[in-house]
Amino acid sequence: MKQHTWQLLTALMGLAALIAGCSPQSSEPTQLEPTATKAPSTGVVATAVPEVATQDEIDQLLTDLQATPVRFVFPTPDPRTGPDWRPPPYDVPLALRPEDHFYFRRPIPSNNVNWPDPTYRYGSTFFGDLSIHTGVDIGADRGVPVLAAGPGEVVWTGFGLYRGIEDPDDPYGLAVSIRHDFGHAGKRLYTVYAHMDSVDVWLGQMVVAGEKIGTVGDTGQASGPHLHFEVRLGRNDFFGSRNPELWMAPPEGYSVLAGQITNTYGVPLTEQLIQIKNIETGQRWDVWTYLQTLANPDERYLENFVISDLPAGPYEIRVDYFGLKFITQLLLDPGRTNILNFRGWDGFEYESDIDSQNQLIPPY
User: Fold this and answer.
1) What is the 3-state secondary structure (H, E, C) of 89-105?
2) Mean pLDDT per 10-residue run, the chain (364 residues)?
3) CB 86 within 8 Å of CB 309
4) Rounded to an integer, what distance in angstroms lies between the CA atom of residue 47 and that of residue 64?
5) Which of 170, 174, 310, 192 is closest to 242 using CA atoms?
6) How many Å apart are CA 236 and CA 218, to the nearest integer?
7) pTM for this predicted structure
8) What is the DSSP string of 27-96?
9) What span, in angstroms and rounded, lies between the C-alpha atoms of 344 and 232?
10) What is the structure's pLDDT at 66?
11) What pLDDT sits at residue 162?
12) Does domain 254-353 have CATH number 3.40.50.1910?
C-alpha cells in the first residue's frame, strides 16, 4: 500500500513539474525573482516533501495536492499564422522598376482587413450580378478609421459623388475624394473613399498620407460595412478609374501579378478564370479578367487582370482554353508588379519575352 502511495505521489509531483515546465516563455526580458514556494504560471503550490514521511503525512500531502486547482496554460495563438495575416506594406512611393507606380498607402490601418475583396475586384461584375466595379472593396469593420492614401486636397465630401451634385441616394453613399499633390505620366491623381459612416475632413482641407479622414460604414449601395476605394488618373470620375491594386504598395515580401489573357488573335477573354497556386504552401487563389466596359487598363501594362497580396515565391498558373488546361510556373518577385500574358493556342508569354515598350497588345 505504501509503495502504491509513493508511486501515486511521484506521478502527481511529476505532473506538477511537467505543467510548470510547459509555461510559455516571454520573448521580452523580465526581472528574475528568487525561487519561491509558488509557481504562478500553473497555480500549483510546491510543498516540501520530508525525506521520511509517515502515512498520515502522505495522506495530507495528497489531500493538499487534490485541493489545489491545476491550471493548464497554453501559448496564445500567434495571429500571424492565419491565412489572412499580412505584414505592413512597403513605404511609398515604391518603384523597383520605372513602370511600377506604388504611390499610395493602404487606406485602412494594417491591424485591420486592408486588402481587396477577392470576389469583387476591379473590372468585375460578380458574374453579372453587380455593376462593373471601378475600384476595390476592403472589408474592414464598421467604425475602423479610413486614412488618406496620399497627401493632397479634399475636393469632395458628402453624398452625391457619382453625379457630382448633392444626392442622399447616391450609390457611393457618404464619400470623400482627394486630389493629390502628385500625378503620373503628366496627369493628376485622385483617390475616392466611399460608403463611409462618418467624415472627419472638410472641402478644401489639405491632408497628409495616413491622416484619418473618416470611418468605415455601409452608406449608399452597400450590402455591409466596407470601404470602396478608387484610384483615378487624369479626371475625377469613373471614366478615369484605374485598378487600385497596381497603385497601393504591397505588404513587405509580397508581390503583384498582372497581365493579358487573350485568344490567339489578341482578343481579350472577358471574365476568364485564372487559377494560381503557391507551390511551396499549396495555397490557392482565383482571379477573373476584366469585363471591358469602364475597366481601364494601365497605359504601360495594358492588363486585363490584376491580383495583389501574393507572397513572393514559386507559383503554378492555370488557364483553361477551349477545354484544354494550360499550366505554367513562374517565380514572383516581391515589391513589384510581375507580368504574365496568355495568348490562346500560343500559350503563356513571359515577362522576359515581352518588349514593354512595343509588343504589348492593347486589349480593347
Assistant:
1) ECCCCECCCCCCCECEC
2) 45 43 37 36 40 65 55 42 78 93 97 94 79 93 98 98 93 98 96 98 98 98 95 95 98 97 95 96 96 88 96 98 96 96 95 50 38
3) yes
4) 9
5) 192
6) 22
7) 0.75
8) SS--------SEETTTTEEP-PPPSS--HHHHHHHHHHHHHSPP----PPPPGGGSTT--PPBPPSSB-S
9) 31
10) 56
11) 93
12) no
For residue 78, count other CB atoms closer than 10 A to its CB.
Answer: 8
Which residue from 141, 154, 139, 251 is spatially nearest to 212, judged by alpha carbons? 154
Closest CA to 156 of 200, 203, 208, 197: 203
Place of cell 457619382: 162
Query: From CA 247, how far away is CA 225, in angstroms rounded?
Result: 23
For residue 288, the number of C-alpha atoms closer than 13 Å in the C-beta half-sphere is 21
Q: Distance between the two ends of the chain, CA-based, in angstroms?
A: 90
Cell of 298: 494601365
Fold: same for 103-246 and 254-353: no
Residue 154's Cα: distance from chain center in Å? 26
* Structure-block grid coordinates of residue 71: 491550471
What is residue 104's predicted lDDT score, i.e. its pLDDT?
Answer: 98
Where helices occur in the chain by DSSP H, the ranges are 2-21, 55-67
AA identity, residue 13: M
Residue pair 262/343 in contact (Cβ under 8 Å)? The answer is yes
Cell numbers standing for residue 19: 505543467
Q: Are 309 and 250 in contact (CB under 8 A)?
A: yes
Residue that is written with C-alpha cell 471574365 in the block: 271
Give domain 103-246's CATH number out of 2.70.70.10, 1.10.630.10, 2.40.50.140, 3.40.50.410.
2.70.70.10
Question: Which of helix, strand or coil describes residue 214?
Answer: strand
Which residue ranges make up each domain of the chain? 103-246, 254-353
